[in-house]
């Protein structure tokens, strides 16, 4: 039969086996297809409708459909897969079969293998040793089969079924693990070792291993030793509750309800006072979203809702501070906007006008512009509540910081939101500031303002200094927001200026010109100008707020300054102080000091007549127009009691420190010239008096050479005149330095700086700096105490020199009078004995008591009286020495003291290096040049 007939017979057989329908086979099928039973084809006349299509396809096919290279590559991959899965016995069996096929090399080997591969299904997990044993003859094993019963007898661990269970260390099982839990090994019979699963092994009954014993203690030890019987809770996977499926629309509704503050099933809200915490319920899920993604999205909603619900709880609480009330009202408005927007979303989802896609992510993105500002406000409220010493202005301070941070981050929407809220709250905070700098009043109960008033009554001179104080924190910082620190001083001074003007009855001038040039504090005006687009918010606010404060401060300060100069006579008072304490008018100063020095010399046991001194000072300064002489007064401190000490104190320049001048100032002037500075004026006045005293003592009497020739030798006259000239030079140089180089330039600079001062505080600072500078440059500062003491010693040398001269004149005249008396006695009575009076060259004399000699110019006391009243301990040691030796000693002491002062001033100038030190160096050079000249 032909190939076509055979092919047709095979197709008929294939169709019949597949469809169970007899086909019309040709008569010669039995002969063409050997091995077919003839009864199967008897009477088969029906033909299958697909037969011709299959035959036509087979006849038109010229090449084999199977590619042998693909088949062999498939088998190689299957071999590798077996080994990866640990089924090496399958890989080895496949290798053996392939080797046998390669030895036979049948014609249709690729097609047969391809067909087998197509029929295979999960070969690595379904094939076992038994399948391989059925496919090939397993050689007989002469060794005896291993039985489970034998193993259990040897090892009791194998008796427990849990030993052979697989342990899973993962959270969730996979399909591969479920498949791997099946049997791994198999045997031919039940008595052989078949696999590690518990279902295929024959177990003996537990009763076979029971041991009857009464040893309960030993039984307990055995049970405790069997650690494998204890249940390991770490390996037990908790039972996962069944998830409830919900739609995304239901989830969206729960989210919107949560934002609105309504109870929900998807979220759990915990409230505590003014704080809310939102947790996600884990019993719900969505079909089209994985559980992890769904929970992550819900947690983000819960975090945002925690902030919103905390704000809702906080706005429900009552606030007492005005600033917090405004802040609370602003948050309420923003929550109302959020509720309106959420209602619109709900309406869009419930009653859609057009097709709407329900999306939780979409709702989250839509609500972010409204939720982000509220979240930041919730952070501010949380920080404010957690601050144990929180004040309402702390909230304003945190808003300022948030505004600056938003601008730095480039978030324009958040920057605008925080900026508007900040300026709205600022308008409330500056209400007490406005009342203070416009009316000079402090509101009762305003605990957030940084200015406080003293509880007790304060005198008018202390009105500026002590009545009002700036409140401070416990750590010393200003009791106000940090951004007000630069302007706090001006705010404080402006209010005090208004208070002073009220006491001076000048407040009506302020009221008539208030509010004309006041700049506005608004976010759009301050920050939204195009030219300031890139400027930092902190600088913009500082500029705007400083301009607002300056508009108030400049006006009040200028009116008060003008009032002090014109109505209160500040310039007149300062000029009067200069004439009285600094002796600016030389002739009037000489007239006053001469009167004081004469009274000092004529006093004995009592101090000078202070009433006469006051009258003389008032008459003397009465000729100066700027001095109100009726205010002038002088007080004196008592000297040391005792006749000897009293005489010494009167002659010493230290006695001048007991004289104090009083010149009361009006209370507005005392605001600038504080009473504490009058002490410095008095110290300078005393120092000037001391310099004048030494100069007056050296030059009060003209020295006649002819009268001195007969009482002094030439070796005594030259040292005296040299030392006297040097002492006069020292006093004149020092007085010139104090008046021309220190007091006059400082006074002129002070007058100019007062005119340039902006407010009273600056005027006070100018005057305090002026008087301090005068004290430092006049050698009265604490750094120059030693140098000042040596300067006073030099001034004392002039008084010592004149006292030595007086003693020398008194002794010389006493000797002359004694000689004349002796001649008279000898001429009258040659036998008369003269009282014993010793006269020595060194000038010591002993004479009768009550002897007084009067000269033409002055009254000469007895030498003993002079010694008692005018000598110090150092002088007493020189009294017994010759007059020339005393002069040389004073000259040596003068050079030593002046050298010390000069070098000390130059050294101090180099050490300090300031403007004051420059004048010290100049004075040191002047003194040094005078010594060497």
Can you describe this structure in just a few lines?
The protein has 37 helices and 10 strands. The protein has 933 residues and is mainly α. It has 6 domains: 3-45, no CATH class; 68-135, no CATH class; 148-208 and 217-235, no CATH class; 249-285 and 302-367, no CATH class; 387-556, no CATH class; 570-712 and 738-784, Gamma-tubulin complex, C-terminal domain (Four Helix Bundle (Hemerythrin (Met), subunit A), Up-down Bundle).
Integer average pLDDT: 78
Q: Stretches where pLDDT falls below 50 for ≥5 residues?
A: 26-45, 172-201, 641-647, 705-711, 822-873
Question: The biggest beta sheet, please?
Answer: 2 strands, parallel
Counting copies of identical and different chains, the oligomeric state is single chain
Cα-atom radius of gyration: 61 Å
Q: Return the domain count.
A: 6
Q: Gap between N and C termini, in Å?
A: 161 Å
How much beta, percentage-wise? under 5%
Helix % is: 55-70%
Which CATH class of the largest domain?
A: Mainly Alpha
Family: Belongs to the TUBGCP family.
Domain Gamma-Tubulin ring complex non-core subunit mod21 N-terminal: 84-174
Keywords: Cytoplasm, Cytoskeleton, Microtubule
Domain Gamma tubulin complex component protein N-terminal: 253-565
Give structural notes.
Residues 26-45, 172-201, 641-647, 705-711 and 822-873 have low confidence and may be disordered. The chain has a two-stranded parallel sheet with strand order 1-4. The chain has a two-stranded antiparallel sheet with strand order 2-3. The protein has a two-stranded antiparallel ribbon with strand order 5-6. The protein starts with a helix and ends with a helix. It has 933 residues and is mostly helical. The protein is built from 37 helices and ten strands. It folds into six domains: 3-45, no CATH class; 68-135, no CATH class; 148-208 and 217-235, no CATH class; 249-285 and 302-367, no CATH class; 387-556, no CATH class; 570-712 and 738-784, Gamma-tubulin complex, C-terminal domain (Four Helix Bundle (Hemerythrin (Met), subunit A), Up-down Bundle). Helix 16 runs antiparallel to helix 17. A hairpin with a 4-residue loop joins strand 9 (853-854) and strand 10. The longest helix has 44 residues, at 785-828.
């Amino acid at each position: 039969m032909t190939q076509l007939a055979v092919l047709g017979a095979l197709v008929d057989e294939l169709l019949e086996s597949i469809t169970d329908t007899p086909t019309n086979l040709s008569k010669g099928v039995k002969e063409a297809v050997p091995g077919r039973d003839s009864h199967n084809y008897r009477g088969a006349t029906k033909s299958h409708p697909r037969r011709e299509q299959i035959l036509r396809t087979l006849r038109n096919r010229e090449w084999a459909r199977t590619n042998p290279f693909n088949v062999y590559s498939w088998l190689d991959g299957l071999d590798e897969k077996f080994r990866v899965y640990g089924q090496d016995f399958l890989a080895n069996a496949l290798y053996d079969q392939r080797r046998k096929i390669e030895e036979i090399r049948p014609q249709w080997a690729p097609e047969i293998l391809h067909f087998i591969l197509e029929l295979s299904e999960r070969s690595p997990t379904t094939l076992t040793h038994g399948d391989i044993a059925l496919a090939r003859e397993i050689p007989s094993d002469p060794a005896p089969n291993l039985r489970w019963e034998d193993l259990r007898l040897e090892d009791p661990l194998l008796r427990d079924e849990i030993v052979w269970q697989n342990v899973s260390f993962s959270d969730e099982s996979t399909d591969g693990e479920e498949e791997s839990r099946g049997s791994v090994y198999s045997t031919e019979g039940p008595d052989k070792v078949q696999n590690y699963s518990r279902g295929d092994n024959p177990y003996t009954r537990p009763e076979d291993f029971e041991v009857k014993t009464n040893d309960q203690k030993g039984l307990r030890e055995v049970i405790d030793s069997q650690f494998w019987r204890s249940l390991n809770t770490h390996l037990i996977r908790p039972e996962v509750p069944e998830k409830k499926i919900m739609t995304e629309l239901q989830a969206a509704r729960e989210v919107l309800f949560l934002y609105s503050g309504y109870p929900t099933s998807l979220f759990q809200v915990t409230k505590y006072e003014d704080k809310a915490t939102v947790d996600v319920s884990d019993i719900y899920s969505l079909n089209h979203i994985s559980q992890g993604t769904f929970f992550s999205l819900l947690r983000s909603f819960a975090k945002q809702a925690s902030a919103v619900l905390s704000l809702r709880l906080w706005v429900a609480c009552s606030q007492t501070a005005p600033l917090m009330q405004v802040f609370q009202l602003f948050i309420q408005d923003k929550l109302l906007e959020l509720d309106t927007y959420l209602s619109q979303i709900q309406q869009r989802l419930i009653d859609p006008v057009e097709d709407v896609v329900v999306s939780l992510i979409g709702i989250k993105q839509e609500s972010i512009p409204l939720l982000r500002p509220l979240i930041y406000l919730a952070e501010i409220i949380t920080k404010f509540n957690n601050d144990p010493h929180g004040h309402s202005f702390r909230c304003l301070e945190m808003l300022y910081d948030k505004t600056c941070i938003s601008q730095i981050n480039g978030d324009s929407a958040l920057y605008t939101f925080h900026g508007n809220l900040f300026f709205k709250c600022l308008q409330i905070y500056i209400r007490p500031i406005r009342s203070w700098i416009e009316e000079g009043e402090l509101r009762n109960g305003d605990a957030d303002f940084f200015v406080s008033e003293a509880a007790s009554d304060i005198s008018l001179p202390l009105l500026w200094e002590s009545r009002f104080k700036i409140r401070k924190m416990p750590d010393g910082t200003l009791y106000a927001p940090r951004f007000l620190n630069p302007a706090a001083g001006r705010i404080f001074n402006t209010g005090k200026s208004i208070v002073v003007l009220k006491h001076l009855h000048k407040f009506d001038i302020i009221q008539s010109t208030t509010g004309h040039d006041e700049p506005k504090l608004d976010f759009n005006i301050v920050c939204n100008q195009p030219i300031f687009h890139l400027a930092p918010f902190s600088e913009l606010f500082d500029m705007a707020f400083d301009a607002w404060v300056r508009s108030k401060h400049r006006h009040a300060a200028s009116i008060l300054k003008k009032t002090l100069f014109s109505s209160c006579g500040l310039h007149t008072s300062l000029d009067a102080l200069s004439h009285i304490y600094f002796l600016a008018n030389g002739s009037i100063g000489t007239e006053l000091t001469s009167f004081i020095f004469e009274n000092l010399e004529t006093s004995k046991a009592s101090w000078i007549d202070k009433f006469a001194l006051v009258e003389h000072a008032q008459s003397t300064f009465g000729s100066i127009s700027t001095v109100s002489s009726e205010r002038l007064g002088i007080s004196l401190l008592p000297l040391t009691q005792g006749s000897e000490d009293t005489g010494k104190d009167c002659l010493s320049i230290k006695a001048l420190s007991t004289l104090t001048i009083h010149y009361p100032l009006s209370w507005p002037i005392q605001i600038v010239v504080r009473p504490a500075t009058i002490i410095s004026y008095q110290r300078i006045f005393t120092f000037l008096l001391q310099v004048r005293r030494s100069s007056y003592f050296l030059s009060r009497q003209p020295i006649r050479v002819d009268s001195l020739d007969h009482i002094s030798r030439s070796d005594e006259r030259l040292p005296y005149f040299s030392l006297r000239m040097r002492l006069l030079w020292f006093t004149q140089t020092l007085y010139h330095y104090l008046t021309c180089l220190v007091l006059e330039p400082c006074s002129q600079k002070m007058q100019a700086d007062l005119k340039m001062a902006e407010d009273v505080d600056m005027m006070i600072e100018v005057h305090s700096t002026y008087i301090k500078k005068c004290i430092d440059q006049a050698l009265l500062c604490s750094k120059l105490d030693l140098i000042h003491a040596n300067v006073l010693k030099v001034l004392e040398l002039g008084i010592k020199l004149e006292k030595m001269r007086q003693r020398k004149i008194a002794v010389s005249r006493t000797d002359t009078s004694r000689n004349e008396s002796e001649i008279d006695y000898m001429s009258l009575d040659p036998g008369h004995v003269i009282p014993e009076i010793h006269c020595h060259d060194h000038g010591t004399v002993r004479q009768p008591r009550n002897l007084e000699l009067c000269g033409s110019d002055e009254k000469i006391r007895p030498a003993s009286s002079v010694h008692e009243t005018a000598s110090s301990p150092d002088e007493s040691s020189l009294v017994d020495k010759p007059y020339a030796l005393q002069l040389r000693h004073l000259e040596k002491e003068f050079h030593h003291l002046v050298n010390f002062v000069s070098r000390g001033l130059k050294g101090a100038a180099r050490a300090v290096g300031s403007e004051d030190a420059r004048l010290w160096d100049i004075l040191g050079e002047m003194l040094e040049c005078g010594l060497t000249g």
